[in-house]
């Protein structure tokens, strides 16, 4: 592959590979469409830029990734279980 193929002809653009769970990719795809982004890449660039520019919010992304991994491993807790555990009836 030539350098032009790797960066679509723009020397300021680098291509990266990202591996994430299929279930999380489904959420990402649904989210970028709902929020009006033109593509998955555009949305991911926005999310990365936002995280770099506002690092105080990065913990939310980490927590989400941990929660996704726990859910995928079967360690998730249903909202009914949470309501029972904390004695709340509100949904």
Automatic annotation (TrEMBL):
Domain of life: Archaea
A GO biological process held by the record: regulation of DNA-templated transcription
Name of the molecule in the record: CopG family transcriptional regulator
Native species: Haloarcula hispanica N601
